Amino acid sequence: AAAGLSYVGGYVINTYKSYDNFLQDKYALLPAVIIICVAVVMFIIGLIGCCATFRESRVGLGLFLAIILVIFIAEVSAFVLGFVYREKVKTDVQGTMRSVFEKYDGKNPESTVVDYLQEQLRCCGVKNYSDWTTTQWFNSTGNNSVPLSCCRQDMKNCTGRLDQPQEL
């Protein structure tokens, strides 16, 4: 389990590089770091449990039980905090995404990330394609199109025009 968590934490940190323009907050990597720390702690706890069982030590098994109870309490606390602050996280991420969309010009690095994100997630805008109507990109195109990365992948002749929303 510790090896699996280590892999997930490393994968999240590696994937972060693709989305770092959207996640400008310095705490964006905190979940990945926590996952790696949990993996290390799990390995140590597993080692304590194995050694205590092997030696049939009552003190070692008691320590193992106490550690498992503390971990259970921490998991319940993390669940409650995640539930309580889910709207704040959602609002913060949407605000950051909107600011990146505002800077979109089709050429800068942020634009490349926006295009990549929209193509990979098969989405358009923060909530939908109408989010583009308030951006500089939309105004510069004569108020009638969104980036081609908004086009559905099965549409070959998509122009990104808003009068053809079935293609987006």
UniProtKB/TrEMBL annotation:
InterPro entries attached to this UniProt entry:
Tetraspanin/Peripherin, Tetraspanin_EC2_sf
Pfam families given in the database record: Tetraspanin (PF00335)
Subcellular compartments? Membrane
Q: Where are the transmembrane segments?
A: 28-54, 61-85
Organism's domain of life? Eukaryota
Q: How is this protein situated with respect to the membrane?
A: Multi-pass membrane protein
| SUPFAM superfamilies cross-referenced by the UniProt entry | Tetraspanin
Query: Is the keyword Cell membrane assigned to this protein?
Result: no
Q: Which cellular component appears as one GO term in the record? A: plasma membrane
Q: Which UniProt keywords apply?
A: Membrane, Transmembrane, Transmembrane helix
- What protein name applies here? TSN36 protein
Q: Which organism is it from?
A: Stercorarius parasiticus
| Gene transcribed to yield this protein | Tspan36
